[in-house]
Amino acid sequence: MRLLLLVLLSFATAFAQNKATGNVENGKKLFTHNGCFQCHGTQGQGGAAGARLNGTKLTLPVFTAILRNPPPSNMPPYRAKIMSDQEVADVYAYIQTFPPPPPLASVPLLKE
Amino acid sequence: MSKKSPVNRRGFLTGAAAAAGASLAIRPPVAMGQQVALKPESSGSNIEVTSNQRPGADFMTDVIKSLGIEYCAANPGSSFRGLQESLITYGKNSNPEWLTCCHEESSAAMAHGYAKIEGKPMMIMAHGTVGLQHASMAIYNAYCDRVPIFIVAGNILDVNYRRGNAEWVHSVQDAAAMVRDYTKWDDNPVTLNHFAESAVRAYKIAMTPPYEPVVIVADGALQEEPIAEKNLRIPKLAMSAPPQGETAAIKEAARLLIAAENPIIVAGRVARTPKGVELLIELAETLQARVVDQRLRMNFPTRHPLATRGSLNAADVILSLETQDLWSSLFTQTGLNKFGMESHPSTKAGMKLINISAVELSHKSNYQDFGRYLEADLSITGDPEATLPELIEEVKRALTADRKRALEQRGTQIAEANKKARDRDRELALVAWDASPISTARMAAELWGQIKNEDWSLVSTDNFQSAWPGRLWDFTKHYQYIGGQGGAGIGYGAPAAVGAALANKKHGRLTVNIQCDGDLNYAPAVLWTAAHHRIPYLTLMHNNRAYHQERMYLQMMGNKFDRLPDSNVGTALVDPNIDYASIAKGYGMHAEGPVSDPKELGPAIQRGIERVKAGEPAFIDVVTQPR
Questions:
Q1: Is A52 on the interface with B (CB under 8 A)?
Q2: What is the pLDDT, as a whole number, of residue B333?
Q3: CB contact under 8 A, B560 and A37
Q4: Cα Rg for chain B, rounded, in angstroms?
Q5: Which of B27, B111, B255, B258 is the most buried (most CB within 10 A)?
């Protein structure tokens, strides 16, 4: 339910807040140093341990809300004491720089 | 009777040691041994001559051969030297063939992997003390994974037969006690006939579902002394039919499953044999029910239209077939709080749970592998594979034509949803496709591209690679996947892969192993065992340079209290980076790497497979993303 509310919130704020205003370089440093890559992968590909962040549709406020108070999962909380709003914005900005995946048709190995 | 010098056994040992010391300067040990055997009387030492007789270990060898055991994996040890010599000389080192291991944990885990492919136990030998201590984690893994291992522990029970300090510290009053909590049965035979009866009994117990390891203690004196017993005989091995569910309960299960709108079959350790896969397909197709495979064995084809991953929340009937920790899929737990963890059902109200399992027949108290108590609505004690034929028959008998039509419609919907999920997986695999370190999806796809037209077998768990092989590959055959450790004991992967590859060898299958770096570092010398015994298989290192699970735990522990830990401390395997290719080369294996560029991976795999097809092991170190 909490996740659903967060998603609804994301629609409400999508247009106003969808632009990253953080520092990409600092975000890159934090993404590694604060452990994000451990579950989400170095390009935000996600996997069994963490959600995909590459190409995320989450707005910064929703992203921040989830980071501060994750839904029941293995996601550790990153509250303001250990990651300021600006630092979260920096990480969010860095995530926007992840390269998009190539088209499926261009990768013969993934043809069934 | 043999000719004997007038000395006791302790004298023999002292004399042998003296002769050995005297010979060392001029002869290699093999020649020394021959000298003792051929010219005992001329040596003038107190040597017991028993050349006209056979040692007890020869009879033990006969017993072991009667069980059809193909291999004996062991690190050599004095407490079973008699049996080792008999297996090699009298037994001609064949059925069982000796596999030289550098660690008892490797011996046990090799047997673990072998049994999951071959469907029967390998024998291992170890000292009753330090050997079993080394082997114990791997034995525990096999126990939790319901896998048979035939363990022979050497021990010298009679103090009069112990030679110096090493044999005192290697001796124990009750050798099997240390592993009794996680083995199914053990015995400490005091005569050869007793050994025969207990060995046959142990094999039968190990191979009656639920399969588990067993221990027979081989007394040192019994092995080494000449056979004095009369009327030695080996009892007939009469295998038990596996326990099967009760008929009335099976009928009730069939009724519930047919009436269900959204039944889900959860498969844990169902398929003990290839037949188990066929039976599960037949049941699922008859019911047109989703199957969630916990991937503890190859239970169900990954691309079958009814194969499903994910939540059980929408099920109105769940059929649990020897599952592991199903409770965690039925309940949601909060984080830790002062009351522990609170739990809430995550399934639909009124959901009916049917549980079929034989594991409760061998529950023990101390180790908690039985997991949380399942509040089943219908609990059937029986081996799933043995129970499925009657359940299928009952479902078919009770299924009306109308109901069958409705089920077919459900099956079509499930198949469409599954096709979408598979397509979604392929889309997800593209993310970080060109990343370095190499993504686990890319590694799985590159490997699949090279093996999909072969008769292949993946002998490692895919849990640590976000299950990409299971999501991308077309698993159809029983031997194509064997699950994981069982007891979550790390150090299983490398040796289990060698044992499984050995079992695959005679069938001509192409064995592949995705090897976690943390796991290999426990006992890497098993690579030498593979090279020495010419066991062909390809290893791809999943070298993510850390104990990543624990790294994430550290992060969680710190963040929970608003402090940011340095999660590299104690978890990262860097500075220096470990050169796994050099390690593998050092153990005599073809090896390449580290490979960090995804474009170089495919050709490296191709070269590795060429070596494997030539009959040798090959190894590629792949620097990978964490998961």
A1: yes
A2: 81
A3: no
A4: 27
A5: B111
The domain segmentation of chain B, as residue ranges, is 9-43, 56-224, 247-421, 430-623
Q: The domain spanning residue A53 has which CATH number?
A: 1.10.760.10
B493-524 in b/e form (b: 16+ CB < 10 A) is bbbbbbbbbbbbbeeebbbbbbbbbbbbbbbb
Question: Is A28 within the bounds of a domain?
Answer: yes
Domain tally for chain A?
Answer: 1
| A1 pLDDT higher than 90 | no
ipTM of the complex: 0.87
Is residue B569 very low, low, confident or very high in pLDDT (cuts 50, 70, 90)? Answer: very high
What distance in Å separates the CA atoms of residue B25 and residue A109, rounded to the nearest whole number?
A: 63
Residue-averaged pLDDT of chain A: 86
List all residues 6 or more positions away from B416 whose beta carbon is below 8 Å from its beta carbon: none
In words, the CATH class of domain B56-224 is alpha beta
- Quick one: pLDDT band at residue A21, thresholds 50, 70, 90? confident
Would residue A61 count as lying in a domain?
yes
Q: B310-319, B326-335, B537-546: lowest mean pLDDT where?
A: B326-335
* CATH homologous superfamily for the domain B247-421: TPP-binding domain (3.40.50.1220)
Tell me the whole-structure pTM to 2 decimals. Answer: 0.91
- Could you tell me if B472 lies within 8 Å of chain A, comparing CB atoms? yes
Chain segment A64-94, per-residue pLDDT in tens: 999 999 987 789 999 999 999 999 999 999 9
Residue A9 in any domain: the answer is: no
Q: Which domain holds residue A79?
A: 20-99
DSSP state string for A76-92: PP--TTTS-HHHHHHHH
Q: Is residue B427 within 8 angstroms of chain A, CB to CB? A: yes
Write the residue in B333, B430, B627 that is nearest to A39 by C-beta. B627
CB B435 to CB A54 under 8 A? no
CB contact under 8 A, B626 and A72: no
Which residue in B431, B471, B542, B564 has the most chain A C-beta atoms within 10 A of its own C-beta, making it the best mutation to test that interface?
B431
CATH number of B430-623: 3.40.50.970
> From the list A35, A42, A74, which residue is nearest B567 (CB)?
A35
The Cα B139–Cα B214 span in angstroms is 9
Distance between A10 CA and the closest CA of chain B, angstroms: 23
Residue B121 is predicted with a pLDDT of 98
Percent of chain B exceeding pLDDT 70 equals 91
The answer to whether position A41 is within a domain reads: yes
Contact: A39, B433; criterion CB under 8 Å:
no
Chain B residue with minimum CA distance to A30? B564
Tell me how far apart the alpha carbons of residues A108 and B449 are, in angstroms, rounded to a whole number: 9
Other beta carbons within 10 Å of B300: 24
Task: Tell me if B542 sits within 8 A of B517, measured CB to CB.
Answer: yes
Give chain B positions within 8 Å (CB) of A99: 434
Considering only the beta carbons, identify the residue of B440, B445, B448 that sits closest to A47.
B440
Selected for mutation to probe chain A from B544, B555, B566 (highest A CB count within 10 Å) is B555
